[in-house]
Amino acid sequence: MQEWWASLDLYMQILWMITLSASLIFIIQTILTFTGMDTDSGLDVPDGGFDSSTDVGTFPFQLFTFRNFINFFLGFGWTAIALEGKVSTVASIILSVLVGLALVAAIMYLFFLMSKMEQSGNIETASAVGCKGNVYLTIPGHRQGEGKVQLSIQGAIREFDATTEGDTLPNGTPIQVVAVLNENMLLVAKI
């Protein structure tokens, strides 16, 4: 190992140090990402000198982050090592910079695409009108009180308070939502 290292010129030694360091940090980041430990834990570490927090109304991806620097040096280093001896040093550096930038752009684009797949998990109560379900707790008739219903709404089973204008609806009665009275109160009718 020492013989191999000593046989390298200064340019290649620096290239190998950059590449191996970036690779090690990349592996650690990947492990932390998959184990869920890459989230904000209260540890105040500057991320490339820029605030890495995102706001809902802003573009959530920043170019100058520690992760992007590592990705750039990963692409740059391995490309330069792979091209050593095949092209001139200047061409190797230019191509390596382009590959490093392309890697950063590709990863940012992948994260952008993944962020579009997020779901809020919030149920829009207004979309309950017309949904069918069953009475969970008896609903007194003629709006004399409230009970509970279970509905399949937006692909999830949810429980809502409900009232009816008709007769009392016992447990298990199939119902349909007629109107939304407020955030958690529905007007239902027997099917």
List keywords for this structure.
5 strands; 19% strand
Question: What does this molecule look like?
Answer:
The protein is α+β, with helices and mostly antiparallel strands and 191 residues long. It folds into two domains: 94 residues, no CATH class; 66 residues, Nucleic acid-binding proteins (OB fold (Dihydrolipoamide Acetyltransferase, E2P)), CATH 2.40.50.140. Helices cover 40% and strands 19% of the residues. The protein is built from four helices and five strands, in the order H-H-H-H-E-E-E-E-E. Strands 1-2-3-5-4 form a five-stranded mixed barrel. About 10% of the residues have low confidence.
Topology pattern, helix = H, strand = E: HHHHEEEEE
Which residues sit in consecutive blocks of at least 5 with pLDDT less than 50? 40-59
Shape: rod-shaped
Structural class: alpha+beta
Biggest sheet strand order reads: 1-2-3-5-4
Per DSSP, the total helix count is 4
Indicate the percent of residues in helices. Answer: 25-40%
The tally of strands reads: 5
